[in-house]
């Protein structure tokens, strides 16, 4: 059995914000990301790869940075399944902003600090020292522009981008009634006609997504019907689809 990895502060440079696998502009897109997360969740046995918790599990991207003076290379090494607490600590810069805004309570803030000390078996002074160092590195890296290498997901990202390009090309060349606008088509517009599990026709009901939890571009794509999830009334199969 693999030894759990240490809990580290892994702040993403500001110049890389939005460049992640979930992005519908740069990465796999929400639905392909959800499918990947489910597979990794199964492989992880439904437990955090750092602390072993099974509470509120997330997919966490681990990056390697090769820095230059003005330009560097960011390589996606792997995606880990980790719990909310470990994820909040890994992205401590964003967590601090949520603490200052009141979105994360003082009690939760203290619990996160305690979680770091427990997992890493260290003192509070160690957490403070690592936080200071991580913020300094983040500030330096945020002044650099990055070339992205998607690592083991390079081919999957290229395939997703190609699919989006082909869809947009079809939309720009297809003959449409003058009143139709796919940007206003609405969620579920491109849902499959048949259930891929039982082949029942017209049996898929849209599962509402919370577009408030998406980035602006992702929410626009969802509201345009470019991706979504549906459940079959006949067999209960859940279908994640993306144009």
The total tally of domains equals: 2
- Assess the beta-strand content as a share of residues: 15-25%
Q: What sequence of helices (H) and strands (E) makes up the elements? A: HEEHHHHEHEHEE
Q: Which structural category fits the helices and strands?
A: alpha+beta
Helical fraction = 25-40%
Shape, per Cα inertia axes: globular
Number of DSSP helical runs: 7
Give the N-terminus to C-terminus distance in angstroms: 39 Å
Q: Uncertain spans, ≥5 residues at pLDDT below 50? A: 177-183
Main sheet record: 3 strands, mixed
Q: How many E strands?
A: 6
What does the average pLDDT come to? 84
The radius of gyration over CA amounts to: 21 Å
| Spatial order of strands in the largest sheet | 1-2-3
Structural overview:
This protein is α+β, with helices and mostly antiparallel strands. The protein folds into 2 domains: 14-152, no CATH class; 182-243, no CATH class. Helices cover 38% and strands 18% of the residues. The chain contains 7 helices and 6 strands; from the N terminus they run αββααααβαβαββ. The chain has helices at 30-43, 84-90, 92-101, 106-120, 124-141, 154-173, 216-223, and strands at 57-66, 71-83, 145-149, 204-207, 227-232, 238-242. The strands form 2 sheets. A 3-stranded mixed β-sheet has the order 1-2-3. A 3-stranded antiparallel β-sheet has the order 4-5-6, with helices on one face. A hairpin with a 5-residue loop joins β5 and β6. The radius of gyration is 21 Å and the shape is globular. The two termini are 39 Å apart.
């Amino acid at each position: 059995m693999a030894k759990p990895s240490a809990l580290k502060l892994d702040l993403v440079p500001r110049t890389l914000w939005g460049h992640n696998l979930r992005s519908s502009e740069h990465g796999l897109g929400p639905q392909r990301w959800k499918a990947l997360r489910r597979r990794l969740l199964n492989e992880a046995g439904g437990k955090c790869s750092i602390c072993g918790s099974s509470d509120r599990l997330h997919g966490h991207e681990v990056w390697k940075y090769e820095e230059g003076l003005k330009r560097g290379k960011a390589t996606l090494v792997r995606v880990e399944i980790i719990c909310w607490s470990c994820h909040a600590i890994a992205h401590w810069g964003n967590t601090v902003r949520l603490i200052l805004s009141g979105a994360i309570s003082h009690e939760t803030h203290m619990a996160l600090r305690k979680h770091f000390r427990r997992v890493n078996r260290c003192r509070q002074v160690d957490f403070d020292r690592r936080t200071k160092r991580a913020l300094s590195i983040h500030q330096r890296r945020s002044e650099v522009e990055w070339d992205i290498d998607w690592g083991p997901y390079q081919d999957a990202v290229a395939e997703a981008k190609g699919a989006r390009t082909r869809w947009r090309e079809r939309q720009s060349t297809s003959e449409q009634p003058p009143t139709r606008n796919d940007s206003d088509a609405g969620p579920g517009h491109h849902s499959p006609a048949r259930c891929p599990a039982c082949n029942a026709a017209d049996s898929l009901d849209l599962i509402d997504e919370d577009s408030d939890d998406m980035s602006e571009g992702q929410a626009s794509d969802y509201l345009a019907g470019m991706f979504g999830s549906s459940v079959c009334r006949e067999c209960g199969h859940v279908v994640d689809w993306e144009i």
